[in-house]
Amino acid sequence: RNIIAAYTPDASERILITSHWDSRPWCDADPDSTLHRNTPVMAANDGASGVAVIIELARLLKELKPAVGIDFVCFDLEDCGAPYWGTGDDEGRDWCLGSRHWAEQASTAGYRARYGILLDMVGDANATFLREYFSQQYAPDVVNRVWAAANRLGYGNFFVNANGGGITDDHLAINNAGIPCIDIIDQRMDSPTGFCPQWHTTDDTMTHIDRRT
Q1: DSSP 3-state of 139
Q2: Do 99 and 78 meet the contact criterion of CB atoms below 8 Å apart?
Q3: What is the C-alpha to C-alpha distance for residues 98 and 213, in angstroms, rounded to an integer?
Q4: Are strands 14-20 and 129-131 parallel, antiparallel or unpaired?
Q5: pLDDT tens per residue across span 73-89
Q6: How far is the C-alpha of 49 from the C-alpha of 123, rounded, in Å?
């Protein structure tokens, strides 16, 4: 079930802001392998943090009064890819099912947005948002605008001016639907997983969420 809300739904000019609201059913990256099969991820960062930003943005709209319409979409089944001990799809087609479904419906309905922003793992302490590879391929102007705005506001320590890797994430389906969309996602290039240590473990809890991020 995707969760969709619209601000000024009659406005022709629109911006899309998204996250995923599901959590991974298996903590298959946890150091304790006895937990892998039967323990889900709490997902304070990997899922809930992006939704929290969306809820706060929605709350602020009465004050901000943007001149465009804004569509918020929380995708289901982003984190449903086969567990690491199982046999998955080599091309990653078992991930991001909610956004693929939404993109098919949006294309059929002729939905358009000026651009989109995906928020994924945006609450962790010491987060580093690198310029994600596919975002730069599909929507370089949006990447440049967001990173420039972050630096103007003094958040260059979070929005690092460096290239990151390519992430299989919900923005791919949005871009394939013809809407330029970027992925703001915490990447750690010095980490074995490419993400924060709590990623897909039982340690993805509120303990590691930092309100400054």
Answers
A1: coil
A2: yes
A3: 26
A4: unpaired
A5: 999 999 988 787 666 66
A6: 5
Strands (E), 108-178: 115-120, 129-131, 159-163
What span, in angstroms and rounded, lies between the C-alpha atoms of 17 and 7? 11
* Start-end of H helices in 23-132: 48-64, 97-109
Instruction: Please list, in sequence order, all residues whose beta carbon lies within 8 angstroms of the beta carbon of residue 113, skipping any fewer than 6 positions away.
Output: 14, 15, 16, 71, 179
Token representation of residue 113: 């947005």
Classify burial at 186, counting beta carbons within 10 Å of its beta carbon; exposed 0-12, middle 13-18, buried 19 or more: buried
**181-185 and 14-20 beta bridge pairing:** unpaired
**Each residue of 111-141: pLDDT tens digit?**
999 999 999 999 999 999 999 999 999 999 9
> Tokens at residue 9, please?
């739904």
Neighbours of 56 (CB within 10 A): 9
Q: Which amino acid is at 71?
A: D
| DSSP symbol at 208 | G
Strands 115-120 and 181-185: parallel
pLDDT-flagged residues of the chain (< 70): 85-92
Q: What is the largest CA-CA distance in the chain?
A: 52
Residue 210 backbone dihedrals phi, psi, to 5 degrees: -120, 120
Contact 51, 86 (CB under 8 A): no
Strand order in the sheet with 115-120: 3-7, 69-75, 14-20, 115-120, 181-185
- Gap between the Cα atoms of 190 and 22, Å rounded: 27
CA atoms within 13 A on the CB side of 36: 12
